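Please, structure for the following, as tokens.
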Amino acid sequence: MTKKELINTLSNEFLFLNKSQTTSVVENVFEVIKQAVASGETVDIFGFGKFVPTLQKGKTGKIPGTENKTYTTQDKMTPKFKSAKAFKDAVSKGK
């Protein structure tokens, strides 16, 4: 499902919101989650899952096709999603 399909589905489900209002709500929810995780917070949505900022350690490696050229990456924060048990159960049952 794409974001556009999500917006269409929600717009059809909640008849008191038009498509423009639904788009605004979805965009705002995504933005709040993005800003919270970017600032180091964990966003825990009960029954769905957690968005967690995690540190990805830098690494050093060899550039393929070269004899002894290497590269190094820096440490960086990356988002991770951990699904909740209820979400995992629903997916495994196909519902």
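The mean pLDDT is 93. The helical segments are 3-13, 19-38, 85-93.
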